[in-house]
TrEMBL record:
This is PWWP domain containing 3A, DNA repair factor. It comes from the Eukaryota. Signal peptide: none annotated. Residues 6-78 form the PWWP domain.
Length: 89
């Protein structure tokens, strides 16, 4: 986990792709649990947050593919509700 450059982090009840900004800081209270914090930047929002290691997953290729395919499905369903795009001359 400490070497990951990109992660999925839980924030506001959702998983967000994020870039790791700083190396982990060890928590002095929970040494047995091996819990630490990461400073990350949520990619799509440019929002910097601090998250617990227990709320983070390493971002892998299949996660990116899942996100891309779900965006494609959302875009297709969104466009079909409004009709095809209109060209403006």
């Amino acid at each position: 986990m400490t070497d990951a450059k990109y992660v999925l982090c839980r924030w506001k009840k959702r998983l967000w792709p994020a870039k790791v900004l700083a190396r982990p800081e060890a928590s002095t209270k929970n040494k047995r649990k091996k819990e630490f914090f990461l400073n990350v930047e949520i990619i799509s929002l440019d929002k910097k947050i601090r998250v617990k290691s227990t709320r983070v997953k390493i971002l892998k290729k299949f996660h990116i593919e899942d996100i891309a395919s779900s965006l494609g499905l959302w875009e297709n369903s969104h466009c079909s509700k409004q009709g095809p795009p209109v060209r403006v001359p």
